[in-house]
Amino acid sequence: MTDAFDRLASAFGGRPRVALPGDGGGRGFGADALRIDGSIFAMESHGRLIVKLPRARVAELIAQGAGEPFDAGKGRPLKEWLAVTATGDESWRELAEEALAFVGSRRG
Question: What's the pTM value of the predicted model, to 2 decimals?
Fold first, then answer.
């Protein structure tokens, strides 16, 4: 993980229902992700922040140039996942907060 993602993960530490990277002890996809109630809401891939957001919001952010479609190596983009192109702790934190609210609301 990069220092930027480490700082982001630290910002979510201690929140109810949120698990930090490594809390689950697993390996493979999502092992180093931020989770709420067991579901991934943010992770890092190749030094970029990846967040889960509503499809319409992902499309909006792509149109604004704030991100790109995320492809998990399957050859097609995932419609609810955004690879953030912006750098900086503040932009990462804002999008991760938005992703937390989205994924957390879906899990009850």
Answer: 0.90
